[in-house]
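Regression test case RT-17, inverse folding.

Input:
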């Protein structure tokens, strides 16, 4: 019993604990939060083998600069050139055939000459038929005269000589008829041949004109093949679509490659941006244009929020806790030297700020029983709990809206052992 009395006496005689105290300060505060971020390019340009073939050696390597239109790798274009020459030959052949088919001037002239000849033959036929009719009339008259002279000769009413003259006239008339009939037969044969020739020329002209659409389609198809061959030849030139740098090299060559095989990945560092996976609870605090301080190894870059993607996603934290996050895209004010693609950064989002406000260190405030904040205010050598109303909160300081004066002194780093009315010594 005596032992416990001595312990209590010694405890009552112990000096009060020494504590460091501070007063609120005036200054500016920026409410912010920090997340890990990574650089990337907003646009990348994959270069692929355009058509199947053999490429040469790919001399470019990651980091090499390229110009727009620069040949990136040499491509064996023999097959494409051969295809183009063959297509051009087919186009020329089809166009010549179409030109020859369309040139029906010779046939038309021949048909015109045939029609003229046929007209002349018909006119000649008409004249010959008229002559034949006259000759046949004379022949019939000569036959009648010859019969009459023969009857008179038998009656001895005329001399023999006159009868013979009549027979000669009859034979001459017959020969004239026979000759004209032969001429008409030959004329009919010539006329039939002329009509057949004119008909054949008409049929040939019609056939060639009817074939024109077929040949025109053939020419169009050949021209399409030529256009495809020219396109394939042009695609076989592997050129840079941009001015930028080589990000990746997938193939060194030389070797045969299939169409669509990846060769290079190009980009322009002027398209550099930063992507940050932000908790959705923090994402609602930022908006387009929110300033962001980016830091890596003591270097700083300034940027602003450009976009908050509309869809979030679930991600496990380092402790295995599911978190809802969303990608926030940050644009750099001035893409600085030393930043490349895939660099890890710390992004501090400056959500809100105020200037000339009362500030305390956030370690000087404790959580109150009612969910608010409180500090331990020093009055003389005694402690008193003081509830405060907090405004903005940064990672290191708090804005005090209500509850303290600039002249008040508070415990710099309180702990849970402090009690109301407790005596302390102010540390130096």
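Golden output:
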């Amino acid at each position: 019993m005596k032992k416990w009395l001595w312990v209590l006496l010694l405890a009552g005689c112990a000096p009060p604990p020494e504590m460091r105290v501070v007063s609120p300060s005036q200054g500016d505060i920026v409410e912010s939060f920090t997340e890990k971020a990574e650089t990337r390019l907003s646009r990348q340009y994959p270069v692929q083998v355009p058509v199947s073939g053999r490429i040469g050696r790919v001399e470019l390597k990651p980091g090499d600069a390229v110009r727009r239109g620069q040949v990136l790798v040499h491509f064996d274009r023999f097959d494409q050139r051969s295809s183009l020459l063959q297509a051009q030959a087919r186009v020329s052949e089809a166009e010549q055939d179409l030109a020859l088919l369309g040139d029906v001037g010779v046939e038309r002239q021949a048909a015109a000459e045939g029609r003229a000849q046929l007209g002349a033959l018909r006119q000649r036929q008409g004249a010959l038929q008229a002559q034949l009719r006259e000759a046949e009339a004379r022949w019939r008259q000569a036959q009648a005269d010859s019969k009459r002279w023969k009857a008179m000769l038998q009656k001895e009413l005329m001399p023999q000589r006159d009868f013979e003259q009549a027979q000669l006239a009859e034979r001459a008339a017959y020969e004239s008829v026979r000759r004209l009939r032969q001429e008409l037969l030959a004329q009919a044969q010539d006329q039939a041949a002329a009509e057949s020739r004119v008909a054949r020329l008409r049929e040939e002209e019609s056939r060639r004109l009817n074939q024109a659409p077929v040949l025109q389609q053939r020419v169009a198809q050949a021209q399409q093949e030529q256009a495809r061959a020219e396109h394939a030849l042009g695609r076989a030139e592997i050129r840079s679509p941009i001015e930028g740098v080589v990000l990746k090299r997938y193939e060194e060559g030389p070797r045969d490659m299939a169409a669509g095989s990846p060769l290079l990945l190009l980009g322009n560092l002027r398209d550099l941006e930063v992507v940050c996976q932000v908790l959705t609870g923090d994402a609602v605090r930022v908006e387009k244009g929110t300033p962001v301080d980016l830091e890596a190894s003591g270097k700083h870059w300034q940027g602003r929020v450009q976009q908050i993607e509309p869809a979030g996603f679930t991600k496990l934290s380092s402790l295995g806790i599911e978190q809802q996050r969303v990608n926030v895209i940050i644009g750099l004010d001035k893409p600085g030297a030393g930043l490349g693609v895939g660099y890890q950064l710390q992004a501090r989002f400056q959500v809100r700020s105020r200037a000339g406000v009362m500030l305390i260190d956030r370690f000087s405030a404790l959580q109150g029983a009612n969910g608010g904040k409180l500090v331990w205010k020093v009055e003389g050598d005694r402690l008193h709990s003081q509830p405060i109303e907090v405004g903005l909160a940064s990672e290191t300081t708090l804005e005090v809206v209500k509850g303290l004066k600039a002249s008040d002194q508070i415990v710099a780093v309180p702990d849970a052992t402090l009690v109301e009315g407790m005596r302390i010594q102010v540390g130096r």
